[in-house]
Amino acid sequence: MIERLNQSVKQRTKVAKIFANEDSCLRLVSAVVMAILEQWQRSKASLSLDSD
After folding, report:
1. What is the rounded average pLDDT for all residues in the chain?
2. HSE (side-chain half, CA atoms, 13 Å) at 44
3. What is the DSSP code string of 1-33?
4. What does the alpha-carbon distance between residue 7 and residue 27 come to, in Å, rounded to a whole number?
C-alpha cells in the first residue's frame, strides 16, 4: 500500500511540476492520500460484507 501511495504522489507531482508554494504541494499530496484512504476503506468494508 505504501508503494502505491508513493507512486501515486510521484505521478501527480510530476504532472504539476512546479508548485506555487509548499502549501500547494501539501494540498495535492493530502488529496491523493485521502483518496487512496477512501478507496482502501471501501474495499475493506466490501470484504467484510462478503465474508458474512
Report:
1. 81
2. 7
3. -HHHHHHHHHHHHHHH---SSHHHHHHHHHHHH
4. 17
